[in-house]
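User: Good morning. I'm curious how zinc ion would be positioned relative to this chain. Could you predict the structure with it bound?
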Amino acid sequence: LDAWSLHSGDRLPLSSLPSLRVLPLGGLGEIGMNCLALEIGGEVLVIDCGVTFPQTDLGIDIFHPDFTWLDHHRDQIKGLVITHGHEDHIGAVPYFAKRFDVPIWGPRHALELIRNRLGEHGFAPNQVNLNISQPRQKFRVGNLELEPIRVAHSIAEATGLVVRSPVGTIVHTGDFKLDPAPSDGELTDEDHFAAVGREGVRLLFSDSTNIDLQGSSGSEALVARTLLPLVEDFEGRVIVGMFASNVQRLRTLGELAMATRRKLLLMGRSVHTHVRIAREIGKLSWPSNLLIAPEQAANYPRREILAIASGTQAERMAALTRMSLGTHPQFALDPGDRVIFSSRVIPGNEPDVMQLMGDFLRQGMDVRSSRTDPGVHVSGHAYRDEQARMIDLVQPEAFIPVHGTLHHLHRHGAMAREKGVREVIVIENGEVAEITPEHLQKTEERTPFAKIPTWHGETIPSQVLKDRELLGRNGIAFVTVLVDGRGKPVGPATIATRGVVDELLHAGLLRQAASEVVRVLSERYWGRDLPTDEDLATVARITARRKIEHTVRRKPLVMATIVRVKT
Ligand SMILES: [Zn+2]
Ligand SMILES: [Zn+2]
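Assistant: Good morning! Here's the predicted structure, ligand included:
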């Protein structure tokens, strides 16, 4: 730049202004799978790399973001910065690390969870370059300066991020709330958000999750107060279901167990993993005699047991589900024991969770949740008053809402406009925004966006999923035809089905379809060339499907096998 162009009041021509592109690869237009790319001056910074979970039962473990855009910019990626250790922010790191060999920064707690996950994916220890980030400690990624800021959230060591760039300072809240009394003392660093705000903030990204909820999300201290009487004077065992990653809640429950002289039992793999990692990094200082193994529980009076269990979303193999069915191998409940759901229900899971509660009730348990006792859970995400306060603290010139469905993003955007933020845009996954020191706009550009379904770490091909959906809806039929060397059937065809008809009741239908296949193949004139097996299978498949479809009014998947017999 020429010196003259930097005089105050001078306006640079737009083309020479630095410009930063915002490319959401996940998490905008949905709640989950957060992954945001920022591109400036030929460098790419990625913020968070999470997964989302399927709502259907097609054998999918998780979805991770489509990395196609990053693949096209692989030489420009300078690093991945993680805000906190929730799955929707770190779950896709192994898939990312398989493709891109770049340094990763994050809070120690998140990095330990990532290390654990990388190990499960077959990475050698230290194969990935992991760097601990600390609140208020600046570090560089390429030409960008980053600085984490402590935020309160339903996990240990959550952070927001300050990104100082040539277009100005950008603040990303991460997932946050303004808990005045978190059990681990990790308050949102409002002073620092305000200080950065006074420096001048060009752009704020803020958590939209709870934009529909008035007031404030409430404190973890409320959970402790609500749980105490539910545990203290209760004669039976108490089982608390929760998200194991909620380290603050684990602390609350540890203190509760000590205060009520109960032994603590950990039920479920994720509870063990999260407790181990929280203890390793000094976030849980439980005395060694507090914990007992599930099989020891029988040696203690019922009123001395407090169990922590995972599986509040009624996940099939989880500890709570097994307890509700009385099939847990090491731990059985008795009528009169109390089960407390200290958790929210993820939208979409309500029917399954009500079923789970029903299974406990049927066994004579006393079931509590935020529906019966509102304080047994508080959200980790800011409600409207807290979201408004964040905008007040940061005073951004421009605003892009994140972490929400399109509905959440629009409402949060409207709030920012009402509060006087000059430039507000809403973008979804696959859309691109561009920001300069003077302008923020949505561009015409689109990036490839998809949710990549995986099973045991491997991508499930889309054709496989389509087939599974089809199988689930319409079932499958197998046609077998014996033919001679000229492709003419020799004897009857057979049709076997799964998920199409009751074969005993509809044996007649299947026989008719089989003889139709034989008739069509017998009458078919193939010309001078003899038919291949594939030609014959195609005709058999189409004929069988038409016949079945005509009778049962659904189109099953049909597979045909041609067997050549010597005549
Ligand atoms: Zn989170
Ligand atoms: Zn999140």
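The radius of gyration is 29 Å. The longest strand covers residues 476-483.
Let me know if you'd like a different ligand tried.
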